[in-house]
Amino acid sequence: MLICLGACQQNKIETSQSSILEITEFNIKTEINETFFLEMSDRLQKEFLQNRKGFKKRYLLKKDNQTYIDIIEWDSKADADNALTNATTEVCINYFACIDEIEKVKVNHHDILKIY
Known about the structure:
Helix content is 36%, strand content 28%.
């Protein structure tokens, strides 16, 4: 136990301040090229997300040719829910229009327990 405590202090393990990770995996439509999709993603970031209450950071990952994973860190679940509820602007609609079968896409929220 003391060894673990010493190692934990030495490695500076941080506990989260109740942040939430929003993780969404989706495919873009086959007729949408990646350059256009990234432009829409950049606009979503600049014109909607970056000034939302509780927004911390965002990662856009590429899994394969058409599959992407959008990870957004929020201060709270309420902030994440509020952003999703208000995602009705033109820039949001244009971004969502790139996503294949969007009605089947599931947005998942996870509590961050620790950051190492």
